[in-house]
Every structure is written in C-alpha cells, then in structure tokens.
Amino acid sequence: MKIKLSIAAGLLSLACNANAAIYAASNVVEGTNRDVLFQNAGPIGTAPLLNGGIVSLGYFIGGAPSSDINLIATTISNFTMQTFALTGSFSVDLDGSFAGYVQGAEVNRPINQLDSPLLGLPVYIFVGNAATLAGSTAWALTQVSTIAADIPNEQLYTGVPSAGTVPVLGTIGTFTGAVNSVSLPYTTLQLQVIPEPSAALLGAIGALGLLRRRRN
After folding, report:
1. What tens digit of pLDDT does each residue of 103-114 get?
2. Is residue 54 part of a domain?
3. Could you list the residue range(s) of the whole structural domain that residue 210 is in?
4. Is 189 contained in some domain?
C-alpha cells in the first residue's frame, strides 16, 4: 500500500513539475504578416521600428498601473519583471535579426498553487527604447494576458497585445514597409514620450485662459 502511495505521489509531483507558467518576451507568433511589431515614438505610420529597445513581460502587484506617463518612474518601480529581451536581437524562428521584432528565451515560473495571490493578475508587456526601462525616454505598456493556474494545463504568456486591448501607455499604430523581405502594413505597438515641460506649461496657461473667459 505504501509503495502504491509513493508511486502516486511521485506521479503527482512529476505532473506538477511538468507544468509551468512560461513567459516569453517574443512577438514572433504567427509569421511576419500577422505579428504586432514594436515601433518608436513619432508620427503614426512613419516612425521607424524599434531596434535595441527593451521588451519586458511581467505584472503589477497592488493595483493597476497609472496611464499618466509623467508617473513613469513609479510605474517602473511597481513592475515585477519576469523576463525581457531586446528588439532587433536574433530570432531563431525568423532566422535573423529584424527591427520591430523580439524573441527572447522562455522562462518557466511555476504557479501551481490554486490559492496563489498571482492568479488573475493581468500580464503586461512593458516596452522602452533603451536597454533598460529606467534608461528609456519613451515607453509603451499594454496587457497581453491574465495569469492562470498551470494545473492541469501549462500556460504561455507572450509579447503580443490582447485583441482589442487599449494600451495603458503608447498607441496602436501602423508601419508599412519591408520587414524580413515581406512588405505589408503591419500593426504596431508605438511608444510614447514624456511631454516636454514647455508643452505642459503652455497647456496649463491655455486652460487658465479658458477658465477666465468662462468666469467673465
């Protein structure tokens, strides 16, 4: 009887260990004609694709991130990164390096406890235009999935925005051109920069002017 219990326990342990939450900082999913590419800040449709920027995958504990890009330092500090890779780095699936694309190594993070506090948390892709989020000057942040238990099925989280999701930071844009020898109008996740202080000041002055007119 003990032997049977030991065997059963061993099989259960093996089953638990076989499953995992797999995080992959990658937008190489369905081929070059359907992937969402990463794009620099700039005019929609004309900004160059991101090359050398960081693409990270993770979540926020303690509440949803702010959509105020002026609070980017706080947003970065509250982000729990699970994995990351750099745009333009070598892609095994594409057999080359291409701006706008990223394919990092997969990272296994078991979340097999059914009462884990991580269950149900949104998974975000957090993009910056430098090798680190803190060193970047433009960012994009959008949800890609939601954390689920890895029992009985293994979970995979990748760097492709969920359909219909509105980015917390950045915009959904387009890029038309040749990528990996395929020229198409690609959908992109485009970065956003912090507004210049002068622009913010002009906006505040304009708002005060409107307020005075209304009072008069």
Report:
1. 988 888 776 566
2. yes
3. 21-215
4. yes
pLDDT (tens digit, 9 = 90+) per residue, 151-198? 777 888 888 887 778 999 999 988 888 887 777 788 899 999 998 764
Q: Considering its fold, how many domains does the chain have in total?
A: 1
DSSP letters, the chain, are -HHHHHHHHHHHHHHHHH--EEEE-B--SS-TTTPPEEE-SSSTBTSPBP-S-EEEEEEESSSPPPS-GGGHHHHHHTEEEEEEEETTSEETTTTEE-TT--BPPPEEE----TT-TTTTPEEEEEEESSSSSTT-SEEEEEEEEE----SSS-EEEESSPPTTPPPSBSEEEEEEEEETTEEEEEEEEE-EEPPPHHHHHHHHHHHHHHHHHHH-
Distance, in Å, from the CA atom of 124 to the CA atom of 172, rounded to the nearest integer, reads 15
In a domain, 72, yes or no: yes
- 15 in a domain, yes or no? no
User: Measured between alpha carbons, how far is 91 from 28 in angstroms, rounded to an integer?
Assistant: 8
pTM recorded for the entire structure: 0.80
